[in-house]
């Protein structure tokens, strides 16, 4: 049974605050099936890493990042290892000034402190002090910038066949020309359609997929050697170099910082890979 961060009846009851928050830490991993609700939801990890599925896109939320899901947007969530995380639920009518599309954001210390305070509230109507804190959360979310912690999926069935195959085996190092032949289209068409449908070149998409999977495996405590092999890197050094370029730190330091909910280094950015 999945333990709710906030009692479900509070999310739909009349005369409840426009903003409610909850925190939860459990020894077991957490998995929430695909669902939607009228409130917008901002969710993040206190430590470790959570993955959020929105349609055919997959987002990851290391500690100090969060995923925003607008009202009525179907989504799922799972943690990698024991779960320690939080969520903020915002009434539909107050979401008009917030991002209209799902996004990953880098949380500020102010936002994290405000969410922690809001998570201690009982669900009663907000007093003046609580209302000010709730508005801080709203302001921080409205001012946030989107971070590249998602993996966009194409809609062309031929491209989907390639991305599904790669997702199943990220160690597959076939070149673009080989994938094009396998999927039954020309290399030029594959290259053009990939950029048009995902905003990334084929090489960038594969590098981003490898980075996001690396973040998941690091959060699960998998050894660096095992991760390098699973993702198709020639050696451990090549994997560590990629990880450092993308996150600003090594896998070991990243894992330690995520566990303690500290800044792990530079923001994880979209990785680059030579074709």
Account of the 3D structure:
The protein is an alpha+beta fold and 275 residues long. It has two domains: 8-147, Jelly Rolls (Sandwich), CATH 2.60.120.280; 153-260, Homeodomain-like (Arc Repressor Mutant, subunit A). The protein contains ten helices and eleven strands. It has helices spanning 8-12, 109-118, 128-142, 157-168, 176-183, 187-198, 202-219, 224-230, 236-247, 251-260; strands at residues 19-26, 31-35, 40-45, 49-54, 57-62, 65-69, 75-79, 83-90, 103-106, 146-147, 150-151. Strands 1-8-3-6-9-10 form a six-stranded antiparallel beta sheet, with helices on one face. A five-stranded antiparallel beta sheet has the order 2-7-4-5-11, covered by helices on one side. The protein is globular, with a radius of gyration of 20 Å. The relative contact order is 0.13. Mean pLDDT is 87; it is low at 265-275.
Secondary structure elements and pairings:
Layout: H1 8-12, E1 19-26, E2 31-35, E3 40-45, E4 49-54, E5 57-62, E6 65-69, E7 75-79, E8 83-90, E9 103-106, H2 109-118, H3 128-142, E10 146-147, E11 150-151, H4 157-168, H5 176-183, H6 187-198, H7 202-219, H8 224-230, H9 236-247, H10 251-260
Antiparallel strand pairs: 1-8, 2-7, 3-6, 3-8, 4-5, 4-7, 5-11, 6-9, 9-10
Helix pairs in contact: 2-3, 5-6, 8-9
